[in-house]
């Protein structure tokens, strides 16, 4: 009992202290719970963010795969693989292009033309070899010689496309035996109303000394060719 004679539990200030302590304890519990909830929320947000990042990364991978597999992408890759060619014009071997063997491929509905010359005088005497053609022609250009061609594309033989038969037929053009066509015996079928022409040569210089055999004909015939030779077909085709 207190000195003033009242029991201690009847003192007003005692109950005020108790109330203050209860309020303080309650406030601490609320702050603790709120911090816990915030941590849970932050963890949930972190997990969601990671999942979103993973989803975005996976979507990007799928999008990249789709682009790589699209027809346009495949077409571009195929175009990139196509061999480079030299455009129609006049070139000097050793200056504009390397000396060596080339393949000319007609890219026009009209006949193509080429000529190899020893100089740039433009005279008939300067011409070493020349020809009008459909299909293809092999030609060799020496150092400091000139080549002029129209209505066709020119490829260095090392990177030129391999000429292919159509339905087993080698159509009008010039073929390198062992590269475009296997060695062996072939049947020659004429197609021109005014006669056909066939020529077998030992090289692609295009001069008379290169010719092994040649013929103008109007009926079917046979021809045998060997590896390393060239066969030129005009208004005719050959097949096994």
Walk me through this protein's architecture.
It is built from two helices and 14 strands; from the N terminus they run ααββββββββββββββ. The protein is α+β, with helices and mostly antiparallel strands and 240 residues long. The radius of gyration is 44 Å and the shape is extended. The protein starts with 11 loop residues before the first helix and ends with a strand.
Major sheet: 4 strands, antiparallel
Number of strands: 14
Write down the overall geometry: extended
**Element string (H = helix, E = strand):** HHEEEEEEEEEEEEEE
How large, in whole angstroms, is the Cα Rg?
A: 44 Å
Helical coverage, percent range: 25-40%
Q: Helices and strands: which structural class?
A: alpha+beta
Distance N to C terminus = 133 Å
How are the strands ordered across the major sheet?
Answer: 1-6-3-4
Strand content: 25-35%
Secondary structure elements and pairings:
Elements: H1 12-69, H2 71-81, E1 89-92, E2 100-106, E3 112-117, E4 127-133, E5 136-141, E6 146-150, E7 152-156, E8 173-176, E9 184-190, E10 196-201, E11 211-217, E12 221-225, E13 230-234, E14 236-239
Antiparallel strand pairs: 1-6, 2-5, 2-7, 3-4, 3-6, 8-13, 9-12, 9-14, 10-11, 10-13
């Amino acid at each position: 009992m207190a000195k003033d004679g009242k029991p201690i539990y009847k003192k007003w200030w005692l109950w005020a202290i108790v109330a203050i302590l209860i309020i303080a304890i309650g406030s601490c519990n609320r702050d603790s719970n709120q911090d816990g909830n915030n941590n849970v929320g932050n963890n949930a947000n972190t997990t969601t963010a990671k999942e979103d990042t993973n989803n975005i990364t996976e979507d990007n991978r799928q999008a990249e795969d789709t682009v790589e597999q699209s027809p346009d992408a495949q077409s571009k890759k195929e175009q990139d693989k196509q061999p480079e060619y030299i455009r129609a014009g006049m070139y000097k071997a050793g200056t504009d292009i390397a000396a060596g063997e080339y393949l000319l491929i007609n890219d026009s509905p009209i006949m193509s033309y080429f000529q190899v010359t020893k100089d740039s005088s433009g005279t008939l005497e300067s011409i070493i070899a020349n020809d009008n053609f459909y299909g293809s022609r092999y030609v060799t250009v020496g150092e400091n010689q000139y080549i002029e061609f129209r209505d066709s594309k020119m490829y260095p033989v090392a990177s030129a496309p391999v000429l292919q038969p159509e339905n087993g037929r080698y159509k009008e053009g010039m073929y390198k035996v062992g590269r475009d066509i296997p060695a062996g015996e072939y049947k020659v079928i004429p197609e021109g109303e005014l006669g056909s022409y066939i020529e077998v040569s030992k090289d692609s210089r295009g001069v008379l000394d290169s010719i092994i055999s040649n013929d103008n004909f109007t009926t079917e015939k046979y021809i045998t060719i060997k590896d390393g030779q060239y066969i030129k077909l005009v208004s005719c085709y050959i097949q096994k």
